[in-house]
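Board work, copied verbatim: Regulatory helix-turn-helix protein, lysR family
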Amino acid sequence: MDLFRSMTVFAEVARSGSMSAASRKLLITPAMVGQYIAALEERLGMRLLNRTTRKQKLTDFGLSYLEQCHDILERVAASETQAEGLQQSFGGKLRLTAPVSFGTECLIPALQNYRKMAPDVVMPVS
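↓ predict structure ↓
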């Protein structure tokens, strides 16, 4: 199973305290939650949770692993946020040539507004 998805499921089970609550939050079946946890425990060779019919309690190793999962999940989320910001930002060089009258009356005011939206764009005007 996908390690990142398994970590996400494990973190949600730990946060919510039960597999059924985690399944509702993650929009997957409780059986699927159990499969993700079992696959993760098998991969690690360690139990992450002590299970009862009503609750899941973290083992000592599970608590330590949860901290590492949170760190990894936060870093991935931060990287995605950074990538989204870079995709939405403007940069580069925009060359414009215009007659003086048009440049003075129309282009310069419009470029001032554009400059506020895209400060990383270099705009030599001739």
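The longest strand covers residues 49-51.
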